[in-house]
Amino acid sequence: MIELDFDKQGGLVPAIAQDHATGEVLMLAYMNRESFELTLRTGIAHYWSRSRNQLWKKGETSGNIQEVIEVRIDCDSDTVLLRIRQIGGAACHTGRRSCFYRVVENGGIREEEE
Amino acid sequence: MIELDFDKQGGLVPAIAQDHATGEVLMLAYMNRESFELTLRTGIAHYWSRSRNQLWKKGETSGNIQEVIEVRIDCDSDTVLLRIRQIGGAACHTGRRSCFYRVVENGGIREEEE
Fold first, then answer.
1. CB of A69 within 8 Å of any CB in chain B?
2. Averages of pLDDT over each 10 residues, chain B, 114 residues
3. What is the pLDDT of residues A56-105, one digit of tens each?
4. pTM for the complete prediction?
5. CB contact, 8 Å: B92 with chain A?
6. ipTM field
7. Cα–Cα dist A103/B10, whole Å
C-alpha cells in the first residue's frame, strides 16, 4: 500500500512530469488520491484540474497523453515524480514540448525557441 | 519585472530543483515572494519552509547549498524550475542525492541504491 500525504494541500499533491528519455522537466500538475490511483492502475497520467475542479486525464482532448514509465515518491511522501513518454511531443497547452520555456534573464524573461 | 502567481497557494509557489548537469530532479520545495527574489538576487536557492514557517536558505546549516545556474517559469507563472549545482552532493535531508529515491513497483515501494 502506498500512502501519500494528501493533507498538506487539501487533498492534493504536486506531480512533476519528466521526459523519461531526455530528463527534461515538462510540467507540474496536481493529483488527488483518485488520480494517483488511476495513474498507477492505467499507466497513463491522470491529474486533478484545479481550474476545472475535476479529474483530468492529460491529453484526453488533445491526444497528447502521457505514458508512465516510472513513478517515484519523495522522502516525505508529499510529491510525485512521473517519468513519462509524452505522446504528441507537447506537454504544454501552448503546443510546446515543456511548460518551462521561459527563462529568467537579466531581470526579464526570455522565451526559449524549440 | 517578473510576476509569479502567488495567489493560488496562499502566497507560495512550488519550485523544482533539477541538477543542471545530469537533469536529475532533486527535490521540490516552496517559495514565497521574498525567497524567490532572494534566489534571483543571490544566485543561491532560498525557499519557504512550510514546517518551520520561515525563510529557508537551503543548506544554511548542512552546507549543502544550491548554486542556481538557471531559473525557469512555467506557462502560467505558478511554478519555478531551478537548474542548480548541488554543493555537497546531497539535496535530501536523508543524505541522498535526490529526495525521489523511492520507486513505486508492483504495488509497493523500492528504495533505490545510489
1. no
2. 90 98 98 97 97 96 96 97 97 96 94 88
3. 999 999 999 999 999 999 999 999 999 999 999 999 999 999 999 999 99
4. 0.97
5. yes
6. 0.97
7. 24
**Which residue's entry shows cell 537551503?**
B58
B10 at A interface, C-beta within 8 A:
no
What cell does A92 get? Answer: 504544454
Write out residues 16-55 of B within 8 Å (CB-CB) of A: 16, 18, 22-25, 27-28, 40, 50
Determine phi and psi for A55, rounding to 5 degrees.
Answer: -55, 140
Query: Hunting for cell 502566497 — which residue is that?
Result: B11
Q: How far is B75 from chain A (nearest CA, A)?
A: 5
Residues of A in contact with B50 (CB under 8 A): 8
Cβ atoms B100, A16 nearer than 8 A: no
Please write the tens of the pLDDT for every residue from A1-12: 688 999 999 999
- The C-alpha atoms of residue A46 and residue A36 are separated, in whole angstroms, by 7
Q: Name the amino acid, one letter, at B113.
A: E
What does each C-alpha distance from B71 to A15, A31, A66, A87, B77 come to in angstroms? 19, 25, 25, 26, 12
- Residues 6 or more apart in contact with residue B67 via CB below 8 angstroms: B43, B44, B84, B85, B87
Nearest to A95 by CA among A22, A24, A26: A26
